[in-house]
């Protein structure tokens, strides 16, 4: 259980922070940037939830919890030493990716096939979900960049990849199952 009695610690005042294993790194390190972006994404999901209801809100709540799992995973390096830890690290698992895929399939059954790219927008919820999609893509790019230098759980990268797909399909669902989608018309303003 997490207990936060004091919010400020002053330990990062010189520009470094502690990872989940206790190592101190620069706040601008690739690992901190990756899990910080997943936290940013979580905040945008919270904004999207202001417009969501029913199953969409429930799904976004599950995603917010997963994003905390993802941050916990990304802030804990040393994948191969996990068995040596007093407290085993929380890692993303394939079933979290599988759940996203199943939810995408359910939403996608109601949508007509696309004939062009979709411009971000439509309903308020769809617009928020498009922002979530683009931040998820950035988080994925940062996680894959980190993975070129350090160990990263492959399930974490897969989750981010699938999550951006989830946000895209969910944005179409939020646009009256695609009826409110605004499609890109190449060269329309030449």
UniProtKB/TrEMBL annotation:
GO terms for molecular function: ATP binding; corrinoid adenosyltransferase activity. Transmembrane segments: none annotated. It catalyses: 2 cob(II)alamin + reduced [electron-transfer flavoprotein] + 2 ATP = 2 adenosylcob(III)alamin + 2 triphosphate + oxidized [electron-transfer flavoprotein] + 3 H(+); 2 cob(II)yrinate a,c diamide + reduced [electron-transfer flavoprotein] + 2 ATP = 2 adenosylcob(III)yrinate a,c-diamide + 2 triphosphate + oxidized [electron-transfer flavoprotein] + 3 H(+). One of its GO terms (biological process) is cobalamin biosynthetic process. It comes from the Bacteria. Its main location: cytoplasm. It is an enzyme of class 2 (transferase). GO terms for cellular component: cytoplasm. The keyword Transferase applies. Its EC number is 2.5.1.17. Pathway: Cofactor biosynthesis; adenosylcobalamin biosynthesis; adenosylcobalamin from cob(II)yrinate a,c-diamide: step 2/7. It holds the Pfam family Cob_adeno_trans. Residues 7-173 form the Cobalamin adenosyltransferase-like domain. Keywords: ATP-binding, Cobalamin biosynthesis, Cytoplasm, Nucleotide-binding, Transferase. The keyword Thylakoid does not apply. It is found in: Cytoplasm. Belongs to the Cob(I)alamin adenosyltransferase family. This is Corrinoid adenosyltransferase. It comes from Phaeobacter gallaeciensis.
